[in-house]
Amino acid sequence: MTSQELLDLLSKSFGEKIQNETEFRGETSFTIAASDVHEIANFCRDELSFDYLLDITSIDNFGEDPRFEIVCHLYSMPHGVHLRLKLRVPEELGAVDTISDIWPTANWHEREAYDMMGIKFTGHPDLRRILMWDGYPFFPLRKDFPLEGLPSEMPDVAFTKVTPMEGGPFVTVPSTAGSKDREPRAHPPEL
Amino acid sequence: MPETRSTAYDSKIEGNVIFTRFDAALNWVRKNSLWPMPMGLACCAIELMAAAASRFDIARFGAEVMRFSPRQCDVMIVAGTVTYKMALAVKRIYEQMPEPKWVIAMGACASTGGMYRSYATLQGIDQLIPVDVYISGCPPRPEALLAGLMKLQEKISRERSFRNQKPELAEKFEEAFG
Q1: Measured between alpha carbons, how far is residue A27 from residues A32, A51, A82, B82 in Å?
Q2: pTM for this structure?
Q3: Partner of A80 at 20 to 30 A CA spacing, among A23, A89, B8, B61?
Q4: Do the Cβ atoms of B87 and A159 come within 8 Å?
């Protein structure tokens, strides 16, 4: 089956639940409501042979509504077709249904989304932080979290301090500016 | 002609006896047999491994015995980015090393946090443990590590080891011999 046939099947089964269908370089994305994810993901795997979950990413559209977005990148091994499910996740929504029972690889991806963005998943077998330590009080990839970090302290486990930026943040674009401008901390003005 | 005096009390060992300060002998022994604790945390560890391999051969400076137990180490080479999650583990390993011990901060990240000015990265391992030698570079080449090691050897050779290690005994000696 081609990707168009697969997508026609999907729209026929779910109709209005599938919105904002876009295609870019042969890969299709569409938006669904967070509450429909389990049903649609199940259909994608069982009926449309999307047997491989490539990745789950989360986006913070700070200041917009809904604030968060979760993107599931699916791939069909038999048909060689990419598909993206975009979930709208409003901030006031408590949690999103887990899809780790459909694709086990979602387990760690969802833990990462929880760790970095603070999005909870209902039905997840082991929803702990994966990169930061248990007890770290912030969600660092949220837009309202400062790049230099916030101080935290967990005795005997870990601590964080605010990073000195001194003219930063620093960007890695090619520039004719000297190192004094690109890396102010390397040349403190008093020296 | 200046008068020559025999320093040996027994002609059999004449020429086999040298006089030196105790510190100098002790430091000479220590600096030429530094057993590193390879605290490899990022890409600097690859250069650390290269420094240990045949082309650069850290064994020429007596530091080839990489021990993965801190209890057998003299010098901790912090090679790489120290995240806050790893920071207290590095400190703990440092504390498990027996005295005397030294620390080399290898590369920009271990020295200052390097390019990682972020919530996740400790801005220099010297915020937690005392560092003897900093090596610049991202990552430093093995030559730079060897140069840093030689700097550390220089530093060790200037130490007042006996006084640092046995202060009471050193005081007694000073009283007795002026």
Answers
A1: 16, 16, 5, 39
A2: 0.80
A3: A89
A4: yes
